Amino acid sequence: MADRDMIEVKGLRVVAGAAPGPVTEIVKGVDFSVKKGEVLALIGESGSGKTTIALSLLGYARAGCAISGGSVRIGELEVLSLDAKGRRALRARTVAYVAQSASAGFNPARTIMDQVTEPALLHHLMTKEAARAKAIGLFRSLALPAPETIGERYPHQVSGGQLQRLMAAMALITDPAVVVFDEPTTALDVTTQIEVLAAFKKVIRELGTTAVYVSHDLAVVAQMADRIVVLNGGAVKENGAVAQVLDAPVDAYTRQLLAATRRPEAVLTLPPNLGKHVPPLLEIRGLSAGYGRIDRHGAPAVRVLDDVSLSIPRGSTLGVIGESGSGKTTLARVVAGLVDRARGEVLFNGEPLPAQISRRTPEQYRQIQIVFQNADTALNPSHSIADILGRPLAFYHHLRGSAAKKRMLELLDLVKLPAGIATRTPAGLSGGQKQRVNLARALAADPALILCDEVTSALDTVVGAAILDLLAELRRELGVSYMFISHDISTVRAICDEVIVLYAGHRVEAGQREVLAAPPYHPYTGLLVDSVPALKPGWLDARRDIVATALPAMGESADVAELCSFRARCPVRIDGKCNMTPPSLKKLPSGAEILCHHPVAELNRLQTVEATPA
Amino acid sequence: MMSQPTNPHHVPHAGTELYDVRRDEVVVEPAPVEAQALKHGVLKRLVHRFSILGLIGLLMVAFWLLVAFIGPLVAPYKGGALTSTEIFGRYSAAYPLGTDYLGRDMLSRILYGARYTVGLALAAAVLASVIGTFFGLLAAVSGRWVDEILSRLFDALISIPSKVFALVVIAAFGSSIPMLMTVAAVAYIPGAFRISRSLAVNVMGLEYVQVARARGEGIFYIARVEVLPNMIHPMLADFGLRFVFIVLLLSGLSFLGLGVQPPNADWGSLVRENIGGLSEGAPAVLMPAVAIATLTIGMNLLIDNLRRRSRSHGGA
C-alpha cells in the first residue's frame, strides 16, 4: 500500500450545461496520478480545463458544470462518491486550495490571523492557541516579514505577494495531504513572483506536501514541479517528468507551447536613417505627471512620473518596462492626452503636443492611437465589431457606406480575422480576437504611433506570441512606431529596438535593446532580468541563494527629493551615498544611460559575480 | 392573473346609460382580428425572448396599457354614472366587480381610472427618467464643476421628502392633471439623476471611453454612443421601479384627497372612496387595490426580465 499513488485521477469527464440544453464536454477523459510528496503541474492555456480538473480534486464543479464520469482518488478516499458532508470533511482535512487572486480571497474586514486560522477552528481541528502558534510557524516558513505580528494586520495592510503567501498559510494550516495551487503567481510582478515561488517551494519541501500546481507559465512550472501534465482542449497532451517535457517534448502542442515561451529574438531592423534633420516621431523631455490636486509649485499631490525623457524615432519601437506602480501606464496616458502633465515637454514630429486633449488638432488625434491591455473593457460591449471599426474610419477619414465597409474588411484581414466577425459583438469573441479588433481599431486611423499598454499580458502564451508577431508584421508593412509597455522582459526583448526602464516614476535606465542582454545594467534592471524564470529546472534554487542574502545596511535618508528611488530595495546600495546625494546620469559602454552611483566597472563586476551561480 | 370579466358585451345591462355598443364594435373589433394574425408570429418570438415570469409581466402591463387607451370604450357604463341602488354590491352578472359606495359600477370606474393612473404615472415616470438620465449623463461626461453644481443641486432636491413636497405644492397650486404630473416627475428626477450619474461615471472610467476620448470625440458623442447604451438596461429597470413608486405616490395623494378630483377618479381615489366597505370585504375597495397591485407587480416582473436577459446576453 505504501507505494500507492497519493492522487489518482481516471477517465475524469466534466461537462458544462444541463441535460435539456446544449452540453459541452470541457474535460474529456483525463488520467494522471501523483505520488506522495510529489508536485504535479497542470499546464495549458485558458479554456484547457486545468482549473476545472484542479477543482474536481476537491470534489467541486463550478456553477453550470458537472462531473459526469471517471474517478478521483485521494489517499484512500473516492472523492466523487462522497456526499456533501463527506466532501466538506475532505476539504477540511485532506485537500486545500490556493486561488489565483488572494486579494479577492480575503475578507477585508477581518484580521489576517482570524482568517488564516479559520479553517482549523471551523472544523474543530485545533484549539485557538495551537492554531495561532501553527500559523506563526507557517508565516516563518513562508518567509513573511514579522511573522509574530503580521497576523494582527488587515489584508489591505500587506502587499499582494505577501497576501498570496498568507493564502498558502491558510491552506496549509490544517496539514492537508494535498494542496492545489491555482495560478498563484500569475497576477504578481516578476520580482514578487520569485519571492512567492521560493516561499512555496520551501514550505512544500519542508512539509512534504503533495501538490498540484496549475499554471500557464512553463518557466514557472519548471521551477516548482516534478512532473508536468500538458492540457489542451480538456485532454491530456503530454504527461512526463519536467526534464523530459522541456527537453524532449513528444506532443506537437507541447512543442508549440515551448516555442512560444522561448521566443527567438526578432531580427533588429532599424529604419533607414534619413539624416540628422528628421526629428524623432515622439520626444519627451523632463516629463513629470501625477494625479490629485496641483500644489503651488505646479506638482500634483501624487507624483507618478518624475523627470522622464525619451525619444522614439520614426518607425521604431520603444519598450517601457517596470513593475506595477512604476508609472508606465501613466506615461502612455500622458502621451494620449488622458492625463495632464505637470512639467516637461512632449514633442510630436518636432512640434509641441498640447497637454490637454481638447487642444490637439484632429491630425494629432489621428496619429497617436492607444491600445489598452484589457480588450474586454476596451471594446464597447453594446457595439458590433463593424461599428467599432467604422467609427474611426468615419471620424478621421470621413469614410462611409461601401468605402468604409471595404476598408473595414481590409483592416480585419490585416489583423487576420475573418470578415464574418464584423456583425458580432465583442462578447462573441475570444480574448485573442478581441485584442486583434482592438489593434484594428487603432490601425483604422492610419496612425504614426501606437501606444501599446500591456497588450499581451492578459493573453495566453501562444495567443500572445501571435499578437507580437502581428505587431512586428504591421510595423514592417505600415511603418508604424510603437511605444510598447510591458512588465515582461521577454516580450519587450522580442519586439523593441530601444528600452527604457521605469522604477517608481523615474527613468533608471535607457538604451538599445541589448542593454537587457548582459551586464552591466542598473541594479533594478539587473533584478528584473534575473527575476524572469528561466526555462530550466533548478533555476529557482540557484536564484534563491542570491535573493536570500540581506541588503546592505543603510542609514536615514537625507531630505532630498531626487534621491535614487530604488535605494530601499537595491542589493548594492552604498550607505552615505545613495541615501544622501541624488545619482548622476552615467553612460555605459553599450550606449545605455543609467541613474546610479556605482561606476560602470563596479557594476559590471558585481553583476557578473551575481550571475555566475545561476 | 386577476378575475377580469372576459367580455363585457355579453353582459345584459338593464337600461340606464348604456354605452354605444355598436360603435364600440366597429372601432375595436377589426383591430384585434388583424392583431391576432400578426401576433401569432410575434408571440412565438416573445415566448422565446422572455421567461415565463417576464411574459406574465409583459401581459399584465400590456393589458393595463390597453385598458388605459380603450377602457372608456369598452366600459359597460359611463364612468360617473349611478347605476344601482345597492351600495358596496357583491360580484354579480350586471356588476362584475360589484358597486361602490354610491352604487356605481366598479368595473367601469376602474376602466375609466386606468387612464389616470397608468397615463399619469407613465408620463411622469418617462419625464423623470429622461430628465434625470440626461442630467446624470451631462454631469458624468462634463468637467468637475458642472458635475459638482448639478450633484449638489439634486442633492438639495433629494433632501425634501417626495410626499411632503407633493403635498405642499398641491396645497399651494391646487390639484390638476398637469400639476400632478409635474410634481410626480420632479419628486423622482433626483433619484434618476443619482443612479444615472453613478452608472455613467462607472462607464466613463472604462477603457473604451478612454479610447474614444483619445480619439478626440466630443462629450455628446461619448455620452450618446459610448456611455448611454451601456447604462440603458439598469436605467430601464430603474424606470420600472420609478413608475411603480409614482403609481403609489399618485395613489397616495388621491387617497388623501389631493390627487385626481371627483367625479373623476384614479385607482388610489377609488380605494379611498370605498374605504368604508373594507369592513364588509366589499369588492369596491379590493378591486382597485388589486388593479394597482397587478400593474406594479407586472411592471416589476417585466423589468426584472429585461435586466436578466441583458445580463445573460452580455455574458454569452
From TrEMBL, chain B:
Native organism: Paraburkholderia dipogonis
Gene3D superfamilies: MetI-like (1.10.3720.10)
InterPro entries, A to Z: BP-dependent_transpt_permease, MetI-like, MetI-like_sf
Chief place where the protein resides: membrane
Compartments, as annotated in UniProt: Cell membrane
Alphabetized UniProt keyword annotations: Cell membrane, Membrane, Transmembrane, Transmembrane helix, Transport
Name under which the protein is recorded: ABC transporter permease
Membrane topology label: Multi-pass membrane protein
Keyword Zinc: no
Keyword Membrane: yes
Family as reported in the entry's similarity comment: Belongs to the binding-protein-dependent transport system permease family.
Pfam families: BPD_transp_1
TM annotation in the entry: 52-75, 116-145, 165-189, 239-261, 281-303
ABC transmembrane type-1 domain: residues covered: 114-303
